[in-house]
Amino acid sequence: MFLRTIFILFVCLSFIKLQAQNSKQDKISKKSYNAQRIFNAPKIDGILDDSIWEELPEASNFVMVQPGDGTPIRETHKTFVKLAYDDEAIYVAATMLDNEPNRILRQFTQRDNVEQSDFFLIDINTYNDGENQTRFLITSAGAIADAKMSGNNEDYSYNVVWEGEISFNDKGWYAELKIPYAALRFPKKDEQLWSIQFLRNILHLNEVYTWNYIDKSIGKDTQYNGLLKGIKNIDPPVRLSFYPYASAEVDNFQNNTISNFSAGLDIKYGISDAFTLDATLIPDFGQTAFDAVELNLGPFEQAFGENRAFFTEGTELFTKGNLFYSRRIGDTPLGFNNAQAAILENEILVENPENTDLLNAIKISGRTENGLGVGFFNAITSETEAIIGDTLTGLNRTIITEPFANYNIIVLDQQYNQNSSITLINTNVTRNGHARDGNVTGFLFDINNKTNSFNYAGEAKMSNVNNPGQNITGFASEFSFDRTKGNFRYGIDHDFANETYDINDLGLNFRNNYNNFGTNISYEIFEPTKILNKFSIRLFGDHRRRYKPNIETESAIGTNFFAVTLSRFAFGSFIKLNTESKDFFEPRREGKFVNYPGYTVIDGFISSDYRQKFAYDVSMNYVSFFDSDRENFRINVSPRFRFSDQFSMIYNFRYSTSTNRNSFVTLEPRREIFGLRDVKSIENAIQASYNFSTKQALNLSFRNFWSVANFEDSKFSSLLDNGDLAPIEYQVTQNNNPNANFNIWNLDLSYSWQFAPGSEAILLYRNSIFNFDKQSDIEFTESSQNLFNQDLRQNLSLRLVYFIDYNNVKNIFKG
Asked: Taking every annotated instance into account, which residue ranges of this chain make up the domain DUF5916 (predicted)?
């Protein structure tokens, strides 16, 4: 009741302030640009010699956004932008003067990878809603990048087809862009009113300038766009494009060579000017990057990033409320572990697929003129079976490990006042037959007052899990109140989940049954000092409780700071003091917990100037536990070297240890067995790239991860009801040995060629080795020798994707 009263009070205050205060943004005049219609499109070659550019007005008078605040651009680096449109696209020409053009950094990269280059970008918000916009970027080396923007969040997994070229002379560099309407979504009206921002990054000066002023101390960057007027009566072409693909691969493992050919199709269709349908038919994810698999000794599954483009492009609506973990689609079958248990006498497990097959997926998303965002997502996975063989008769039988499944998401997101939104989202998983189904509904709000000085955000989510003969309902909520203006800021937050909250059919949720409170205060500078370009420091406090029973689990206070010098040297630290904690998850048995001592965390990092040919990142972490021999240590060292504008390499080394930790061993009918465990890990990784141009590259990705977990002999214990551990005699045998030696090696060598807009060919060679055993007493060198005694899996594949625009081939279809 108390929290509900506080929530109502905060909401009421926000609307009072909404009426009583005048926005600072209203005092800052927005620039505007009137676009001109053209009838002869320019040639997109980066050379601004087309006659149309001479007749158009220019956007100029850029001002500094980093590191200073509003300083006019240098006379030696003036920037001019011109924009035009026709019924197919908008066209942009940018002139970027530089009195020292030989100092302009020009590192060659591939799409969506900027690295050490100057760049020019344009942000287009076709709804002028202060929140959602599309970013188009081109570097001084000619590489392009595009992203969906939501507030200050950038999503570079978003890719559309557009053109951009650059040129150089002794006065500076120039960019020419063509952005088809097919790359944008906008309301249908006679005259468009869009907001727009131009930005120039001058890397060797460490300065960034924008066309329209941005007040960094308040609000979001997307709320400071200028206005784009004059686009009238456009008749955009049909937004329909096809991405047919074909792939062939040869796989060799354990002297068994298998070849495979597959083909499929991705489709993008503009249902209207505002809404787009994306579909993938018979998808193939054979060339997705390796997951960074590690030795997982904890009570929770290891979470991985999404490597499949369809599930990362244009999904900003579907990720609202963190209810969508796309790796669930095509994940390990629900009954994967049941296959082994189903084996009878004289039977063996012949085949047990580790993943389900995705048959197809679609997503529809867009936003109306009134700011209502609508999203629909659907994916279907096939039935998965394990094969069990009879060693006597030679006959096989199958068991279903995952039935046919349907995944759905529906989202309604209403934005208003150019700074606030309310959202309703539902996720649903339905499996064929008598199997587990899941349904989750969330209501979210993100409210800023008119001056953007305070933010009120919250979520209320209800889960439903339907097991055969059982329906389980759960609830979770979040609420935060934050001061979001000025150098000094503060906030409070509250997170809650009952003991039955479960979103893991389509989401990812490790913990439930909590009732947590937090508070913070921070200070940040927005203009450089004589030493620092950026500086921020934050103090925080957390108090965590169990919902049922209502007891404290832990509390903490701490601080973290971040700083960047004028020479782009960054450093920071994190310090936390934590009380004794009750861990309800490590025992792996409902209602039981283990007590862990309080601890102190000291964490720090340094990062040198990436503009230099040689740069480095170093971070360290040390955890010391009170009244205990337990401690943790980790160090990361990552040097990088840019041999030339075409060739660069990054090496990463990570070493970590955890000693004297009382850890879970096994469950017995009447007790939980723990042991004193040491863990040591070493990771080596290399990322190297040679760019022949911004369209062709040779890439190397290598990772070797080794980890060993060793339980000390005669240091086993049994968990008591009060969370303490009592020493016991526990006999380790071959069958119950908890020790582990884990070693994995992955290597990818690929050649990529973007041979046409939206079209790409990738030739990939990869090999991998994996070893897991119980030899916890060996060191890295011996473990690596054992690793190379394992069978090497080798794979060679070629994938071709070709972009087809319906408007370019419709005459062929008509014929």
From this structure: 236-813
* Pair 358, 405 in one domain: yes
Is the distance from CB of 215 to CB of 113 less than 8 angstroms?
no
| Domain final residue pick, 205, 229, 253 | 229
CB distance 456 to 447 below 8 Å: yes
Tokens for 102?
Answer: 């030989």
Full domain range(s) for residue 15 = 1-28+301-509
In the DSSP assignment, the letter for residue 42 is P
- Say whether both 114 and 147 belong to one domain: yes
- Take residue 628 and report the two structure tokens written for it: 């205990």
Return d(Cα 779, Cα 360) in angstroms, integer.
46
In this structure, the answer to whether residues 64 and 18 fall within a common structural domain is no
Give the separation between CA 697 and CA 646, rounded to whole angstroms: 9
Torsion of CA 138, 144, 150, 154, to 10 degrees: -100
Decide if 761 contacts 752 (C-beta within 8 A): yes
Peptide bond before residue 67 is cis, with ω within 30 degrees of 0: yes
Query: ∠ CA(550), CA(553), CA(557), 5° rounding?
Result: 125
Using DSSP's 3-state secondary structure scheme, residue 505 falls into: coil
Q: How many domains does the chain have?
A: 3
Structural tokens at position 752: 């990529």
Element (H, E) at 810: helix 806-814
- CATH number reported for the structural domain that contains residue 207 in this entry: 2.60.40.1190
pTM, two decimals, is: 0.88
Residue 296 falls within a domain, yes or no? no
Establish if 540 belongs to a structural domain: no
Does residue 792 belong to any structural domain of this protein?
yes
Q: How far apart are CA 747 and CA 742, in angstroms?
A: 17
Residue 157's H or E segment, with its range, is: none
Q: For tokens 């994940």, what's the residue? A: 331
Identify residue 96 by its one-letter amino acid code. Answer: M
CB atoms within 10 A of CB 520: 18
SS3 236: coil
CA atoms within 13 Å, Cβ hemisphere of 243: 25
Joined together, the tokens standing for residue 42 give 């320019």
Measured CA to CA, the distance from residue 247 to residue 203 in angstroms comes to 40
Cα distance between residue 720 and residue 596, in whole Å: 13
268 forms bridges with which residues in the sheet?
241, 278
Q: Rounded to whole angstroms, how far apart are CA atoms 120 and 334? A: 48
SS (H, E, C) 416-485: ECCCEEEEEEEEEEEECCCCCEEEEEEEEEEEECCCCCEEEEEEEEEEEEEECCEEEEEEEEEEEEEECE
pLDDT tens sequence across 31-81: 999 999 999 999 999 999 999 999 899 999 999 999 999 999 999 999 999
Q: What share of the chain is helix, strand, coil (3-state, %, to 5)?
A: 10, 55, 35
Which is it for strands 36-37 and 79-85: parallel, antiparallel or unpaired? Answer: parallel
Instruction: Report the candidate in 104, 102, 97 with the shortest Cα–Cα distance to residue 78.
Output: 97
Q: Give the C-alpha distances (Å, rounded to integers) separating 560 from 317, 472, 535, 626.
A: 31, 40, 11, 21
Do 123 and 1 have their domain in common?
Answer: no
Q: Which tens digits make up the pLDDT trace of 559-608?
A: 999 999 999 999 999 999 999 999 999 999 999 999 999 999 999 999 99
Distance CA 410, CA 689 (A): 40
Q: How many Cα atoms sit within 13 Å of 268 on the Cβ side?
A: 24
| Residue 447 · residue 12 · CB < 8 Å | no
Tell me the C-alpha distance between 124 and 148, whole Å: 10
Burial 119-151 (b: 16+ CB within 10 A, else e): bbbbbbbbbbbbbbbbbbbbbbbbbbbbbbbbb
Tokens of 435: 């199997």
CA distance 741 to 773: 5
CA-based nearest residue to 551, from 590, 584, 518: 584
Nearest to 279 by CA among 270, 266, 290: 266
In the structure, what pLDDT confidence band is assigned to residue 813 with cuts at 50, 70 and 90? low
Q: What is the CA radius of gyration of the chain?
A: 29
DSSP per-residue string spanning 269-297: EESSSSEEEEEEES---TTPPPP------
